[in-house]
């Protein structure tokens, strides 16, 4: 009987390791949005929760069953070493090792150990252990939950693309290549703007300092115009470039919509017909039901220039 029990423990442990290696090194969730990517990362915590709990329970079925804290310590160390080895292997198979993944591994492992202690020992308050485990798992899932809420808000607010008063919509906006983008209270010089906040962008010395609006609501077919507002506090005009792509974009300049917008000093409203946006120089018609990304950018600015942007929307 003892031999069968030992065989079962070894078999379960080996199966757990093999399945975990497959999930960590090979499995990919189906989407490539920020929600799916963050959920993929959060899966580290869920998986290491399961690993730690299973190995704690297996050790509790051995002669070490009366040493729960020894079991907890050993399982935590082994889990972290296993997570570190997996991250090192990822560096050799074309994927990037990540300290944040290691942090999620640790959160999950500690949560699994807490549940083990709550179920298999009376030396630890079950309530405290359970609450700690739940808090760690919730924290590890907080980012995908935020992205899920942001996606819902994006759909609810459409045809508004970004207005910078809704923090959820602002999650889909990012400054890149020496463009310093931040949300600020509406400057007093922009007197006709009644909103409370705008996007302030310092376009700096990068090659193409830009602001990217990604993971857009894709279906623009029910609307006629793309509109946004800008305030140029400089004493001279500033040329702002606009780029819009759909999901079929071939990464060629002629296969996207491009426009050069001259922003005069002071207030500017930019309104571009979607019929114009859809006609690409490549000869292809942009699929306005599958719009993907919007970028505003400048050339290298010396010295940097600041623009205030607001009310990106469709009409």
UniProtKB/TrEMBL annotation:
Keywords, alphabetical: Membrane, Transmembrane, Transmembrane helix
Keyword Transmembrane helix: yes
Organism listed in the record: Saccharophagus degradans (strain 2-40 / ATCC 43961 / DSM 17024)
TM ranges: 7-25, 45-64, 71-93, 99-120, 127-149
InterPro entries named in the record: Galactose-bd-like_sf
Protein name: VanZ-like domain-containing protein
Family annotation (Gene3D superfamilies): Galactose-binding lectin
Lineage, broadest ranks: Bacteria, Pseudomonadati, Pseudomonadota, Gammaproteobacteria, Cellvibrionales
Domain of life: Bacteria
Keyword Transmembrane helix carried by entry: yes
């Amino acid at each position: 009987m003892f031999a069968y029990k030992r065989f079962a423990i070894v078999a379960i442990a080996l199966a757990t390791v093999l399945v975990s290696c497959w999930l960590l090194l090979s499995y990919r969730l189906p989407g490539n949005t920020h929600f799916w990517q963050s959920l993929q990362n959060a899966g580290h915590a869920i998986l290491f929760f399961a690993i730690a709990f299973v190995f704690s329970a297996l050790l509790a079925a051995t002669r070490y069953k009366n040493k729960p804290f020894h079991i907890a310590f050993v399982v935590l160390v082994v889990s972290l070493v296993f997570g570190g080895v997996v991250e090192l292997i990822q560096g050799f198979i074309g994927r990037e090792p990540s300290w944040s993944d290691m942090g999620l591994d640790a959160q999950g492992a500690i949560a699994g150990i807490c549940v083990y202690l709550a179920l298999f020992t009376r030396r630890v308050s079950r309530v405290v252990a359970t609450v700690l485990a739940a808090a760690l798992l919730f924290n590890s899932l907080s980012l995908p939950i935020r992205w899920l809420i942001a996606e819902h808000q994006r759909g609810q607010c459409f045809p508004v693309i970004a207005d910078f008063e809704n923090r959820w919509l602002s999650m889909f906006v990012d400054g890149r290549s020496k463009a310093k983008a931040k949300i600020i209270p509406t400057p007093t010089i922009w007197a006709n703007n009644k909103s409370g906040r705008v996007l302030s962008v310092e376009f700096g010395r990068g090659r193409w300092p830009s602001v990217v609006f990604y993971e857009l609501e894709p279906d623009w077919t029910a609307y006629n115009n793309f509109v946004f507002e800008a305030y140029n506090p400089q004493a001279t005009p500033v040329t702002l470039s606009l780029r819009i792509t759909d999901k079929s974009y071939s990464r060629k300049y002629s296969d996207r919509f491009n426009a050069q917008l001259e922003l005069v000093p002071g207030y500017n409203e930019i309104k571009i017909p979607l019929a114009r946006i859809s006609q690409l120089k490549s000869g292809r018609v942009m699929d306005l039901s599958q719009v993907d990304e919007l970028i505003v950018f400048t050339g290298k600015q010396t010295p940097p220039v600041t623009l205030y942007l607001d009310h990106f929307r469709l009409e």
